[in-house]
Amino acid sequence: MLLLTLLLAGCAGLKPAQPPDLNITNGHLFGITRLAFEPTGTRIASAGFQGDLAVWSVPAGELLGRFKWHDKPVRGLAWLPGGQLLSADESGLIVISDLADKRILHQHETSSGLTSLAYLAGAHLVVAGYEDGRVVTLSYPDLTGQGQRELGSEVVALASDHAGERLAVSTDDRRVRLFDSNLTEIRQLESPSGTALELRFSPDDRELAAGAWYRIFYWDLATGGIRAQTTEHWGAVTSIDYHPAGDRLISLGRHTDANLRLVTTDGGKVLRRLQGHRLCGAAVRFSPDGRFVASGSDDESIRLYDLNKPYRPQRVGRNW
């Protein structure tokens, strides 16, 4: 009982924090896996462990549609030009769907063990990473195979830069590398002390950030040099995102810690604590204008926090 109490306390986060302005409690059965804001910021897409996708209005949280293109946990989610949605699941099924017409435009079955997904807009390429260490590129929109690279260790995370021309890849052997759209290696970055669990490019594409156990790592992409930033998280920092201004970053914990922290990128100063989820965190994203933070968790909820409101932290109450 004592161990259970400690674990629940860890996931809850007992420091006073800003409560969510919206709490969608029935997001996805068994939990959320991915979140993606539409570029206009008026909608957010979510994905779950049972393969279902949903689209919600922002900031009201009205359910605009729910779709079942997948049967396995969704491991990749991104908006494409024209309001299309790109999604992929663990079985290797990659789908491009038209949400207005509620239909699949293109789909392609790749191999199982898909872990991550990215879209290189500048090259019109979809990129998928796999447990067996492969990175595969497919053309957009028809999803025909274009290239493949063997990295020798499980692909943990992918990220595309904002120009849509470079790809960052982290693997389970603690390596982080940059590739061009032809999967030619540009640079191997200085190795972090732990596996990079999620990667995000800064808005100006000069820096790369990664969440890891207890820390956030930052790389100067001109030199490949690394700096580590300690956090208030008590476990894995499973998801991160840059504020559009580039000077702040939001982080979400997972193991024993589902808390959210808004910190400065230059020194890690905590600017806001956001109330965490009941169970382990899965995904966090800024809205395109930087006003809202959205988070999703194994507790099946999606939460929205308004950063334009004055910061008035509260202790966790009975409605948490």
Automatic annotation (TrEMBL):
InterPro entries: Quinoprotein_ADH-like_sf, WD40/YVTN_repeat-like_dom_sf, WD40_rpt
Keyword field: Repeat, WD repeat
One Pfam family, short name: WD40
Ranges of the WD repeats in the UniProt entry: 25-66, 274-308
Protein name: Uncharacterized protein
Source organism of this protein record: Sedimenticola thiotaurini
Lineage: Bacteria, Pseudomonadati, Pseudomonadota, Gammaproteobacteria, Chromatiales
